[in-house]
């Protein structure tokens, strides 16, 4: 049996640290906006190499608050990709703005930046690239286009903790970075949590206000906001896990390297890493024309897999209102038919990777 992810194995390796951190929060009753949040914000900003990190309640909240802090709202358009989790587009819709899609690069599953400029209109306010699976978007030409047209750039880093482009960590290249700490992420809480990163003091201040009812003092409200705070308990857990993140990411890269060796001639398409990019390998995604057959075969061998994502956003009922049709984004649609995510987590042993690879070769080779 090879699970898709094994959080228990990770938690067992740091059980004592986690127990002490959780007990401290309980013993001090510091549940809301407690000191663990400020500690995590400081340490995560240092990890990313950026001035500000603001803890929020989820990755979706991070996207929502970032867009809000950039004054994006009704009448505006924000460009992103249709091959991503719906939260990326939902956050745009939550602000009353229109989602505009650009197809993906089939090699990396991130935005095909060569198609970006054609999607820009007078109503375009921002670009929201997604560093999907842990591979950075091609940020150099994207930033050049965005600056040329006066557009804000919000990086969706939900799957890319520790990834980098041309030596710069993701979340530090655009105006704002948005991270998720969903439990299965490279850096995961024990519930929902997220963060917004930025070097802009005004954006950081506004996000900090908006996440906490727009207030500075307990009953002094400078603006109308939301309750999108990070829980102090989750911050305490993240403070335990963050020092291990670099090591865990290296373990993921070692697993990926093993997959590349074992599957080099296995009859499947392997993920590509572009020059200058450091992949975080949140997911290891292969392609095969008989994806359903391969997935069923692996299931029968006791190997769990995932599909990220089977239905493109432009074909979701929730976004029928945008007027897109099948065929509008052919690379996204082809990926949705062919992709399969193999088990990938830091605690995988070489034997487990070998077992998965052997089964893939047996089916596809």
Topology overview:
Blueprint: H1 7-13, H2 15-28, H3 35-48, E1 52-56, H4 59-69, E2 77-80, H5 87-94, E3 98-101, E4 124-127, H6 139-148, E5 152-156, E6 164-165, E7 168-169, E8 176-180, E9 194-198, H7 201-210, E10 215-217, E11 220-221, H8 232-241, H9 245-262, E12 277-278, E13 284-287, H10 291-300, H11 330-338, E14 339-342, H12 350-364
Parallel strand pairs: 2-3, 2-4, 4-5, 5-8
Antiparallel strand pairs: 1-9, 6-7, 6-12, 8-9, 10-11, 13-14
Helix pairs in contact: 2-8, 3-8, 4-5, 4-7, 9-12
Key traits:
365 residues; alpha/beta; Aspartate Aminotransferase, domain 2; Aspartate Aminotransferase, domain 1; 2 domains; 7-stranded mixed beta sheet; 3-stranded antiparallel beta sheet; 12 helices; globular
Our Rg estimate from Cα atoms comes to 20 Å
CATH superfamily of the largest domain: Type I PLP-dependent aspartate aminotransferase-like (Major domain)
N-to-C CA distance: 21 Å
User: Which strand order does the major sheet show?
Assistant: 1-9-8-5-4-2-3
**According to CATH, what is the class of the largest domain?**
Alpha Beta
- Strand tally is 14
> Class by helix and strand content?
alpha/beta
In the CATH hierarchy, the third-tier topology of the largest domain is known as Aspartate Aminotransferase, domain 2
């Amino acid at each position: 049996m090879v699970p898709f992810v094994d959080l228990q194995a990770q938690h067992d390796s740091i059980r004592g640290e986690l127990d002490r951190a959780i007990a401290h929060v309980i013993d001090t009753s510091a549940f809301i906006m407690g000191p663990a949040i400020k500690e995590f914000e400081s340490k995560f900003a240092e990890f990313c190499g950026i001035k500000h990190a603001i803890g929020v309640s989820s990755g979706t909240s991070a996207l929502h608050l970032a867009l809000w802090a950039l004054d994006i709202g009704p009448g505006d358009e924000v460009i992103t990709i249709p091959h991503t989790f719906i939260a990326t587009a939902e956050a745009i819709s939550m602000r009353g703005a229109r989602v505009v899609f650009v197809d993906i690069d089939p090699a990396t599953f991130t935005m095909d930046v060569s198609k970006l400029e054609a999607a820009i209109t007078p109503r375009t306010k921002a670009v929201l690239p997604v560093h999907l699976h842990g591979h950075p978007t091609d940020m150099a030409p994207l930033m050049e286009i965005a600056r040329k047209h006066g557009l804000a750039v919000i990086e969706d880093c939900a799957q890319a903790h520790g990834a980098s482009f041309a030596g710069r960590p993701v979340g530090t290249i655009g105006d704002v970075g948005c991270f998720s700490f969903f439990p299965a992420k490279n850096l995961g809480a024990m519930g929902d949590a997220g963060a917004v990163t930025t070097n802009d003091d005004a954006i950081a201040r506004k996000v900090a206000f908006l996440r906490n009812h727009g207030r500075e003092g307990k009953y002094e409200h400078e603006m109308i906001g939301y309750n999108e705070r990070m829980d102090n308990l989750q911050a305490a857990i993240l403070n335990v896990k963050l020092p291990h993140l670099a090591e865990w990411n290296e373990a993921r890269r070692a697993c990926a390297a093993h997959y590349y060796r074992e599957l080099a001639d296995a009859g499947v398409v392997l993920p590509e890493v572009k020059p200058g990019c450091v992949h975080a390998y949140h997911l290891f995604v292969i392609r095969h024309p008989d994806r359903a057959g391969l997935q069923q075969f692996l299931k029968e061998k006791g190997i769990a897999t995932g599909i990220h994502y089977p239905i493109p956003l432009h074909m979701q009922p929730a976004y029928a209102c945008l007027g897109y049709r099948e065929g509008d984004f052919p690379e996204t649609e082809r990926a949705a038919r062919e992709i399969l995510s193999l088990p990938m987590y830091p605690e995988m042993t070489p034997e487990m990777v070998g077992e998965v690879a052997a089964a893939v070769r047996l089916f596809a080779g």
